Amino acid sequence: MTRRSHGKRLGLILALSLLASNAFGITPDNVIQMHKSGLPAEVIVQTLQSTGSTFNLSVSDVKKLREAGVPANVIDVMVSSGMPAPEPPPEPAPEPSPLDATGADMSGLTEAQKAEAEKIRAAAQAAAEAERARIAAAERARVQEELKVAQEALDEKDYARAAQLYSAFLNRNYADQEANQKAQLGLAQSEYGLKFYGNAAEAFHELLKAGSDSPVFVPAFEGLRQCTKKIAYHPATLESLTGNYIDSLPAEVKNSYNYFLGKFFFEYNRNTEARLYLQAVQPGAEDYAEAQYILGLIEVQEAGDLPSDDDTSGFASFGRILVGATQYFQEAVNAAEASDNLKVQSLAYLALARVAYSLGSFDAAIFYYRKVPTESTSYVDALHESGWSYFLKGDVRRGMGIFHTLDGPDWHHYFLPDMYLLEATVFMTTCHFEYAHDAIKRIEERYLSLAGPLNAFLAEYNTPEDLYNAVVLKKTRKNIELPKPLRMAMISNSDFYDLYTTVTTYRREIESIQSKRDALGHDLTEQLLGHVENAHREHVMALGIKIAEILQNLSDELVQLEVQVTEIRIEIDEAQTDYLQKETEDLYKKGEKQQQTSEVAAQERATVFVGDKYVTWPFEGEYWGDEINNYRSDLKDVCK
């Protein structure tokens, strides 16, 4: 017999000896002994239940059992055994009546006899009240002990066990409302610790219904804020939070609360309410920079589209509103720089540049575009738009230098078709017709060639669920996949990104809950899965619809691009014909010698471009990101 099997045999002997006498008091040390002897957890549980053993475990007892390696389900049985259902309160004392304690009619008694009967009744009533107080005190002690054990598990970051203990507490339906709220908060915090952000957000949100005077209100709100940084949680029911009175709360909580509601209303396009809350966020607050940025966006939205050139009054009003927006954006920049908030800083600089661009202040636009850090996700947009600004202010060399840079391998998969259209136009107006045709050819090869695969993709995956599976889960059929430039264009859409990260988080939460089924227990697992699976399905549908919308817009853009390519090709051919006609006329007039001189000069101009006719990537070796805006094209106007 091996040592392990011998240990199991001793464990069984110990269990049988305990079963032999229901009077035997099993202690935590006995349980540890049974576990160390190799007795399976289910046999230990059966032993405890068969003997009717009860335990009033202290926090130190639970810690001792856990350190000894006693299985969690055994400890749970021991903990719950010492927490019976609350005792029913005794019957209330009888109301005064002419009957004595035996039911006899006291109407014929003397005053002394009645007084004696009243004394007996008062004593009985006092005894009943004392019993009720004893039962209430015992229940409060039991409740506090349960919460203490659960809180200890939470403090030790044993989140699965804490969630199970808090859930079991809530299932007992104690009458103590404050204790129940603390348990709900503990459960929500345990879910957050487990990275169950969907369930945690819902639980924190539910707790806020208790009102701002509740002791759990502030930690519940802070928990909800943390969850919304992980997932896009903004159901319409959040509007109910406007009914809470928060003036008595700490300043940092009020600022956070005002920002949270302001952003909620902005996302629902309710700018009046959004402005009210966002303007209440004070300077120095954590969310102040982003609040100022959103206020600037509200001004831009209300400015509307750029008026026509002949609408003088409309353009003046448009300009006044945008100037107001720049004040918010500049304040956002200042606050973001002070707090090292790169995201808001980049977005605010980009917004300032776009406002200046809209107002025709191209020098100011270029100044702000160059402020966007190279490590920002907005950098390529800033670089591309700054190229347009250079063109519109007449600096063709710098504009082309930036576009040549963006044509390099680092940005090969970005969707920037209008860049080539502008290049083709510049080549045409400077009489570099072959380069203009090359630019058109690049549009056809890089962008118009995407129309076929995109249409096939949309035809194959024509439901929101199919699009989600194909794009997000990459479950494609018949090798019909989305080309990388179109995928990059889709990923750069902020609405897609928010939905994508939320759906991904929900999917991982489902997988994590399922993997922790044993630790959480069946009932809690099913409860958690029920909520998050519904939320996941809803967001998958929303994401699929957003993917369809983005891809359809890209398809429409490619159709329009094809029309533009046809138009500019005709313009290039016409311009080249006019140029050749004029050149021919000049040659006849100036004679053979002049013709030879013209050919030599043209050849010299052609050598401006290194290598073949047009070098797509003329920059070799390393380059510094902050130098890109300083690149210039060597293109010269060769028109006569």
List the keywords.
640 residues; 26 helices; Serine Threonine Protein Phosphatase 5, Tetratricopeptide repeat; mainly alpha
Give the SSE layout.
Layout: H1 3-19, H2 28-36, H3 41-51, H4 59-67, H5 72-81, H6 111-155, H7 159-171, H8 177-193, H9 197-207, H10 217-228, H11 251-267, H12 271-278, H13 288-303, H14 312-338, H15 342-358, H16 362-369, H17 379-392, H18 396-406, H19 417-429, H20 433-446, H21 451-460, H22 464-471, H23 484-491, H24 494-515, H25 517-520, H26 522-606
Query: What level of helicity do the residues show?
Result: 55-70%
- Count of spatially separate domains: 3
Number of strands: 0
Protein structure class:
mainly alpha
Shape: elongated
Low-pLDDT residue intervals, each spanning 5 or more residues: 1-24, 96-103, 595-624
Give the overall pLDDT as a whole number.
82
Q: Any overview of this molecule?
A:
It is a single chain. With 640 residues, this protein is mainly alpha-helical. The chain folds into three domains: 1-82, no CATH class; 103-242, Serine Threonine Protein Phosphatase 5, Tetratricopeptide repeat (Alpha Horseshoe), CATH 1.25.40.10; 259-589 and 624-630, no CATH class. It is built from 26 helices and no strands. The protein has helices at residues 3-19, 28-36, 41-51, 59-67, 72-81, 111-155, 159-171, 177-193, 197-207, 217-228, 251-267, 271-278, 288-303, 312-338, 342-358, 362-369, 379-392, 396-406, 417-429, 433-446, 451-460, 464-471, 484-491, 494-515, 517-520, 522-606. The termini are far apart.
